[in-house]
Amino acid sequence: MELTEQAIQANAGQRRKMIEEQLLGRGIKDLAVMEAMSRVPRHLFVNTSLQHRAYGDCPLPIGENQTISQPYIVALMTQALQLKGEERILEIGTGSGYQTAILAELASQVFTIERIKPLAKKTKGLLEGLGYENIVYKAFDGTYGWRDQSPFDVILISASTPEVPAALIEQLADKGRLVAPVGGRETQDLVVITKHGDRVIKRKMGSCRFVPLIGKFAWPEEE
């Protein structure tokens, strides 16, 4: 997928407005996160019919019963990762690829897993078309993690899970950070986990609502 510079630069004003109205004043202080969100063309990660709503303060459907998270939640989760630029990140749930792109702007390498194969293929094409070369893709059950590439400095789970899968905590490096929405199918708490040797420290950042993480060690697929 070839994307012109004009397409990428389109809506730059809306991105600035998004940052000013939705992020500043709501606890988002990481300048690198805001700079990344000012660069990534969010409107390209939603269906054409919804592009006029891409910079609104709300999640949007992207097909396959999945959503793109609202900008504030993306910023909040990314800020909680405390990225410095050299991290190797594991992302569970590629989805639209918007969060993936933000992570790729801020870290050394992103390993991203998406269970839904058509969505994984579409998103890979979009991100490659945007020129990202530091992303590695896998279509698989993300609750297993990516053991042969572990340990990871950071893990981000972008779908709700009743508990953080043990495999993912095992694959987190010492002093690594993991962010995930944890709780029921309807509402969750956004949780930050820090690993210190055999100890795991958890901190809640507030309530949220994500689509369920479907997999062997999370939610079963509804019939």
Brief overview, please?
The chain is an alpha/beta fold and 223 residues long. It has helices at 5-9, 12-23, 31-39, 71-80, 98-106, 117-129, 166-170, and strands at residues 60-63, 66-68, 88-92, 109-114, 135-139, 152-157, 172-183, 188-196, 199-208. It has one domain (5-208): Rossmann fold (3-Layer(aba) Sandwich), CATH 3.40.50.150.
Order of helices and strands: HHHEEHEHEHEEHEEE
| Average pLDDT, all residues | 94
Report, as a whole number of angstroms, the end-to-end distance. Answer: 34 Å
How large a portion of the residues is in β-strands, by DSSP E? 25-35%
Number of β-strand runs: 9
Q: Total domains, how many?
A: 1
Task: Kindly state the percentage of residues in helix.
Answer: 25-40%
Strands in their spatial order, largest beta sheet = 5-4-3-6-7-8-9
CATH superfamily: Vaccinia Virus protein VP39
